[in-house]
Write a structure and sequence with these properties.
By secondary structure, the protein is of the alpha/beta class. It folds into 3 domains: 62 residues; 73 residues, no CATH class; 162 residues, Ribonuclease H-like superfamily/Ribonuclease H (Nucleotidyltransferase, domain 5). Helix content is 47%, strand content 9%. It has a 6-stranded mixed sheet with strand order 1-6-5-2-3-4, with helices on both faces. Strand 5, helix 10 and strand 6 form a beta-alpha-beta unit. The longest helix is centred in the last third of the chain and has 21 residues.
Amino acid sequence: MGQRLSMATKNEITKKYAREYRRASKTDKGRMLDELTATTGWSRANARRQVKAADRRKGPARATKRRPRPPTYGYNTLKVLQRVWSLAGEPCGKYLAPVMAETLASLERFGELEPVAHRLNDHVRTQLLAMSPATIDRMLKPAKDARYPQAVSATRPGPALRSEIAVRRAMDEMETKPGFFEIDLVAHCGHTLEGQFIYTLTATDVFTGWTENIAIKNRAHKWVVQAVGTVAERLPYPMAGLDCDNGGEFINHALINWAAERTLFMTRSRPHKSNDNAHVEQKNGDIVRKSAFRYRYDTPAELALLNELWGYVNLRKNLFLPTKKANG
């Protein structure tokens, strides 16, 4: 019965009990609490608290409005947090919170907080250092949503050669040595797929997490094969295999022949199962979008600029950032 009552109705019932509860004997109080718990579904301890609160409340329960809790963190704290998060590489709260003190001190020492330095006082500093990972993520959510709007998918199926490539599933046993790479393309189309635009090919080693990014003019087969070949040449160890989605930029004779000539085995994911390529899909958002954002790039100058950027990003990711990897 208690589940069918609204909170306002429960408060009205409690208010009626409160008038008698204060003057009742211990035995009568127990009886009243039993009746109240049976009616509302509350626990006995909660019913006691509600009765005492109702006795202090003036006027009918429906007229009582809950006073909103004042915000704990002010605007100055938010702006400094956004600056620190952006310069630290936009990590999630679980990664940012443990290194907040060190990161804040380093950015302050090198003058990187200049746009918001006037907002950083002792109170803001104390709040930033005490902030939990969940609070960091909650406060940064509007900034993340504005910076990374919903993506436009440019993947087009390539059904002709699917039967020639083995399917690899997310639950399949993970490779136990370096060399097997998941590959994917990220479209730098802005918010429209019209016209020609640049793509970034991302390759991630399933075992080590080693990741290479390279920008290409478009997704023509020759550019994709050339990019994969460049990635293979850059690696500090041999490439042993490739795993891709079902896009026509990968499921084609050019890439299949390239892999066959080098005795590299190829697999593909199941259609519409992005989790089968979870390792590289995660890098698409965490590295490509966080470094190049969702802008449109479609000129030769921008192609050169992106590849210069990826040179620095690849070095930072592979040599200076930790990799967190669950057991397969």
